Amino acid sequence: KNEVEQSPQNLTAQEGEFITINCSYSVGISALHWLQQHPGGGIVSLFMLSSGKKKHGRLIATINIQEKHSSLHITASHPRDSAVYICAVAGWYGGATNKLIFGTGTLLAVQP
Amino acid sequence: NAGVMQNPRHLVRRRGQEARLRCSPMKGHSHVYWYRQLPEEGLKFMVYLQKENIIDESGMPKERFSAEFPKEGPSILRIQQVVRGDSAAYFCASSPETGGVEQFFGPGTRLTVL
Q1: Would you state the pLDDT for residue A41?
Q2: Which 3 state secondary structure label does DSSP give B1?
Q3: Tag placement on chain B: N or C end, fewer CB within 10 Å?
Q4: What 8-state DSSP symbol labels residue B101?
Q5: What whole-number distance in Å separates Cα of residue B4 and Cα of residue B20?
Q6: 3-state class of A91 per DSSP?
Q7: In the structure, what pLDDT confidence band is assigned to residue A62 with cuts at 50, 70 and 90?
Q8: Is B101–A98 a contact, with Cβ atoms under 8 angstroms apart?
Q9: What pLDDT was estimated at residue A107?
Q10: What are phi and psi of A71, to 5 degrees?
């Protein structure tokens, strides 16, 4: 079983829909990241969370440390949101390193 | 403040050649992580370096791969005698402090081995 699991793996939505991507992890963490990657493109960091909730524009990220679960929400989705969304956790290794463990990503396609 | 820079962005090598990938961290950052994304697979940690030190290389293949981060200049990921299975996107990320959880990603180097 992967240490970081994302669902769904693929998601197709109509423009304007509310989207939720889920991430569950099984290790102790110091932080959780949500990343965005366009096909063939670089990686953009959307959020870094260690507790609670963060909002940036139409994007909202939440984390429940007790349940080891995080969600990424996109409100009023738009075709330009089409990308792969990746959940990554910085595992707790006593502070010496915060190498990231990645989920397999969620491929989102928003249709006009 | 320039972001993390990687070069080259695309690199083509024939089997048996050497590949050198460079990563210049953000200004003021002295910690670099290298990650690899194989085709149709997720990202995987390779190595974590501070200036002049390798801190964690638990994700590095045992042979042909090496990394350094000298006192001056960029971090280098070196792959000797490349094989087709080395074809992947290689990303580096930099962080400003020891154990810093915030990492800033470079644009990646896409290596193709013919």
Answers
A1: 84
A2: coil
A3: N
A4: -
A5: 17
A6: strand
A7: very high
A8: yes
A9: 96
A10: -130, 145
Place of tokens 């670099």: B32
Contact A100 B33 (CB under 8 A): yes
Phi, psi dihedrals of residue B89, rounded to the nearest 5°: -100, 130
Strand A19-25 and strand A43-49: the pairing is unpaired
Confidence of residue A44 (pLDDT cuts 50, 70, 90): very high
Please state, in angstroms and rounded to a whole number, the distance separating the CA atoms of residues B76 and B13.
17
Contacts of A44 in chain B (CB under 8 A): 105
DSSP one-letter code for A31: E
Contacting residues of A for B103, CB less than 8 Å apart:
33, 45, 90, 98, 100
Total residue count of chain B as it appears in this document? 114
Q: Which residues of A touch B56 (CB under 8 A)?
A: 96-97, 99
The token pair that represents A45 in the structure block? 């960091």
User: How far does CA B79 lie from the centroid of its chain?
Assistant: 10
pLDDT tens string, chain B, 114 residues long: the values are 579 999 999 999 999 999 999 999 999 898 999 999 998 888 999 999 999 999 999 999 999 999 999 999 999 999 999 999 999 999 999 988 765 678 899 999 999 999
